[in-house]
């Protein structure tokens, strides 16, 4: 039973592990039950808690999609009593500073790697559309399938870890993409390979329902 597993196994294991490592800070992203539990544990153990905003949806009313009304109240308490809140962009910062004007809220821009040795390519040699991401519901893979079907004469190269698929809709979409002749599934690729993929792409396609600010946007601007 999921609730019993949390109460009798997962929470006690988390407390035991945190006590063992004796951290000075605990950092946790996303508006979720996991963040609520970790945040409460940090208060019980008197460890400083840092909340990291992973998506724009974590700071406004859309956060309630992933958590219940009661969890939303506790989540807001966790944010209000956190030691620091780290944002990715101005929207996140301005939204949170209105809610918590006395909080220590900062913006840390996305770190990303730029390989300056890669020379700029003109449209010549750019012969496919690239897609890079994780296979989760928010990435809207069903729209990726739709785009690939509507452009049968254009090749799509898709990079991501197929071993981490979090929902049935994404899994069904991946199964459908595997059958398409104009789609190449690259699997997990490292950072250098991502840059090479983007360098030769006509465009970077992003189908996400929401984002914080994707590093692939920043990397594409360099290409």
Rg (C-alpha, Å) = 20 Å
The rounded distance between the terminal residues' Cα atoms is 49 Å
Describe the biggest sheet? 4 strands, parallel
> What is the total tally of β strands?
8
Mean pLDDT: 87
Low-confidence stretches: none
Class of secondary structure makeup: alpha/beta
Strand order of the largest sheet: 1-2-3-4
β-strand amount:
15-25%
Q: State the helix count.
A: 8
Shape: globular
Helix content: 40-55%
H/E element sequence: HEHEHEHEEHEHEHEH
Fold and architecture overview:
The chain is built from eight helices and eight strands, in the order αβαβαβαββαβαβαβα. By secondary structure, it is of the alpha/beta class. The strands form two sheets. A four-stranded parallel β-sheet has the order 1-2-3-4. Strands 7-6-5-8 form a four-stranded parallel β-sheet, covered by helices on one side. Helix 5 links the parallel strand 5 and strand 6. The chain is globular and about 55 Å long. The model has no long low-confidence stretch (mean pLDDT 87).
Provide a compact summary of the structure.
The chain is an alpha/beta fold and 223 residues long. 41% of the residues lie in helices and 16% in strands.
